[in-house]
Amino acid sequence: MLLPALSLVKADESDGGFVGPSIAEFVPPGLLFVGTPFELNRVMLIRLLVVFALVLILWLGTRRLQLVPSRGQAALEYILGFVRNSIVFDTLGEKDGKRFMPLLMTMFFLIIGMNLTGIIPGLQIAGTAVIGLPLILAVVAYVMFVYAGFKKFSWRYLKNSLVIPGVPWPLHIMLIPLEFLSTFILRPVTLALRLLMNMVAGHMLLVLCFTATQFFFFSVLANGQLIGLLGIGTFAFGIAFTVLELFVAVLQAYVFTILTAIYIQMSLADGH
Amino acid sequence: MNVVGQLAPLAFGLAAIGSGIGVGIIVGKTIESVARQPELQGRLSGLMFLGIALTEALAFIAIAVAFIPFPAP
């Protein structure tokens, strides 16, 4: 599975032989069921693997719950407790938080699992680095906060979310379209784009660092040019960015979940 | 001398100036407020993330501009 990244370094005359990563990185060739609508490429296989691993971890971790937790159960309870207390209950409160807990918990674990594959050696691409998954998650969040508002206020929800109380009425001509744009269009778009672009940029950085390392060591240094020792620097940066990506993966899962929780909370709030 | 390349990264750079400053101000002010009233941290960090989400939007739209298939002139 490392082969697609390595094969980027091809003989090319204009740049001294070095070819950087391109956007083609994210549309790898199909591997299974090629030619059918269910064609699976590397990214899809990684996503399936992540779902399988998540189900396995959560099932094994919660199969025999004990009052005095084992080490694995304690670790899982710590993460679940973090999501429950500092994401869900802090923004939505206990009563509404319990209703939306399954959704937000699923989102957090799915995103963190998909993001982490970006730095696991051998997988090396995040499941969220292709638009499909972030788009689906953003649509789910969008449907959920609109549904929550409509269920509580029916049509008054539109007035709650579009009309800002306490401004002189001529300003509404300008403010209502702006509020509509920011609430119903920009929110889902930015949710999807934030997750996607963070993962895409992280993946590009890592590919750039490691292909440069490979180029410096095996094309330049192997030819006897000492400038190839720069590869040590690019390798060190690659490792440093891998650690940064670990942080970004966790942070993006946190931000996506907390923003969904905040959007639901704003739909449920009575005016604003 | 001919310079060949894309303008989209430049657009992202320009957009990132604005949202970088904006996010910096938001986070800085939140830290100031938490230092004054630590008991409000939970609510303030929620507001902070909301503000960051709105401010950052411009930078992310700027990245996405590179992938919009504009018709060639």
UniProtKB/TrEMBL annotation, chain B:
Residue ranges of every copy of the V-ATPase proteolipid subunit C-like domain listed in the record: 10-68
Residue spans crossing the bilayer: 6-27, 47-70
Topology of the protein relative to the lipid bilayer: Multi-pass membrane protein
Tagged with keyword Nucleotide-binding: no
KW Ion transport (keyword) present: yes
Main location: membrane
Protein known as: ATP synthase subunit c
Organism of derivation: Microbacterium lacus
Gene that encodes the chain: atpE
